[in-house]
C-alpha cells in the first residue's frame, strides 16, 4: 500500500467514524426528544391528578417535575420521597395549625415529706440542673415563668402563667408559645409522712413539625416520665441531704393573681 492509498483509507475511516457519531447523536436526540415529550405529558397529567389526588400523586408530580427540570434520577427520587413524606405527615396531622390535643397523665412516688417535695418543685430555677431538656427558667414574677428547652437539635421557648397555686396541694398553669402549648396541673399527695405522690396532668397541643411528629409517636409522655424520674432522683439525693436549704415559694395564687405572699 503506497502513501496515497493509505491516506485515502485513513480519511475514509475518519469520515465513516464521524458519520457514525453524527448518526449516534441524532439517534440519542430523537430518543431524548421522545422522552421529554412523554415526561411533559406526564407532568401535565400528574398536575391535573394532583389537584384531586393524595400524597402519592403529589409525590409523583414532584419527581416528574424534578426530572423535567433536568435533575438526575436520584435527585428526582429524593424530591418525590420528601414530598410524599411531607404530604403524608400533613394529612396525619390534620393540615391545620392547631394540633390534636393530647392528654398526658403521669405519677411518681417520692420518698420524702410532702412539704419538701412541694418546696423543691417550686424552685423552678433549679430545673436546668437536673432536667435533661430544660435549658433555662426565668421567673419574671411570682406567677409568670419564661422557659427554654431543647427539642431535637433546636430550641423552643414559651411562657407559662400560674393561675392557681395552693402550698403543699397543687399548682395549675396555662402556657403560650409559637410552637404549641402545654397546660397542666401538678398535685402533691401524702401517702405517709415520708412518702409523697406527685400527680401530673398535662394537656399538650403541638404545632411545629417536630412537635407534631413527636406527638404522633407519644414522645412527650416518655419525656415527662423521664423528667419526673430526674426530679425524684434530685429530691432523694440532694434535697433530703439539706432540707433546711430548700426554700420553696409558699405564696398563694388564685385566678392568676397573688393573694398571699410568704
Task: Please provide a written account of the structure.
The radius of gyration is 33 Å and the shape is elongated. It has seven helices and nine strands; from the N terminus they run αααβααββββββααββ. Helix 1 runs antiparallel to helix 2 (55-68) and helix 2 runs antiparallel to helix 3. Strands 1, 2, 3, 4, 5, 6, 7, 8 and 9 form a nine-stranded antiparallel beta sheet that branches. The chain is an alpha+beta fold and 262 residues long. The model is unreliable at 88-97 and 209-217 (pLDDT under 50). It has two domains: 3-92, no CATH class; 102-260, Alpha-D-Glucose-1,6-Bisphosphate, Chain A, domain 4 (2-Layer Sandwich).
Summarize the helices and strands and which ones pair or pack.
Layout: H1 3-50, H2 55-68, H3 73-92, E1 102-110, H4 114-121, H5 127-130, E2 134-139, E3 144-151, E4 154-166, E5 170-176, E6 180-192, E7 195-206, H6 209-216, H7 219-239, E8 252-254, E9 257-260
Antiparallel strand pairs: 1-7, 2-3, 3-4, 4-5, 4-8, 5-6, 6-7, 8-9
Organism: Actinomadura rubrisoli
Pfam families: Polyketide_cyc
Protein name: SRPBCC family protein
Amino acid at each position: 500500500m503506497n502513501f496515497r492509498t493509505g491516506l485515502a483509507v485513513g480519511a475514509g475511516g475518519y469520515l465513516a467514524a464521524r458519520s457514525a457519531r453524527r448518526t449516534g447523536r441524532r439517534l440519542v436526540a430523537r430518543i431524548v426528544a421522545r422522552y421529554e415529550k412523554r415526561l411533559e405529558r406526564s407532568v401535565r397529567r400528574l398536575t391535573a391528578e394532583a389537584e384531586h389526588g393524595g400524597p402519592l400523586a403529589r409525590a409523583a408530580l414532584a419527581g416528574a417535575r424534578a426530572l423535567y427540570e433536568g435533575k438526575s434520577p436520584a435527585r428526582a427520587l429524593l424530591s418525590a420521597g420528601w414530598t410524599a413524606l411531607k404530604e403524608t405527615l400533613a394529612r396525619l396531622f390534620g393540615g391545620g395549625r392547631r394540633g390534636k390535643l393530647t392528654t398526658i397523665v403521669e405519677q411518681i412516688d417520692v420518698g420524702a415529706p410532702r412539704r419538701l417535695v412541694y418546696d423543691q418543685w417550686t424552685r423552678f430555677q433549679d430545673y436546668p440542673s437536673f432536667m435533661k431538656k430544660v435549658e433555662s427558667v426565668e421567673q419574671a414574677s411570682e406567677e409568670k415563668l419564661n422557659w427554654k428547652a431543647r427539642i431535637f437539635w433546636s430550641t423552643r421557648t414559651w411562657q407559662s402563667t400560674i393561675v392557681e397555686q395552693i402550698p403543699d396541694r397543687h399548682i395549675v398553669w396555662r402556657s403560650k408559645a409559637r410552637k404549641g402549648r402545654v397546660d397542666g396541673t401538678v398535685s402533691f399527695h401524702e401517702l405517709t409522712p415520708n412518702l409523697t405522690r406527685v400527680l401530673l396532668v398535662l394537656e399538650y397541643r403541638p404545632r411545629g413539625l417536630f412537635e407534631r411528629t413527636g406527638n404522633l409517636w407519644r414522645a412527650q409522655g416518655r419525656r415527662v416520665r423521664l423528667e419526673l424520674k430526674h426530679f425524684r432522683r434530685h429530691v432523694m439525693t440532694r434535697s433530703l441531704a439539706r432540707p433546711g436549704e430548700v426554700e420553696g415559694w409558699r405564696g398563694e395564687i388564685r385566678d392568676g393573681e397573688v393573694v398571699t405572699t410568704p
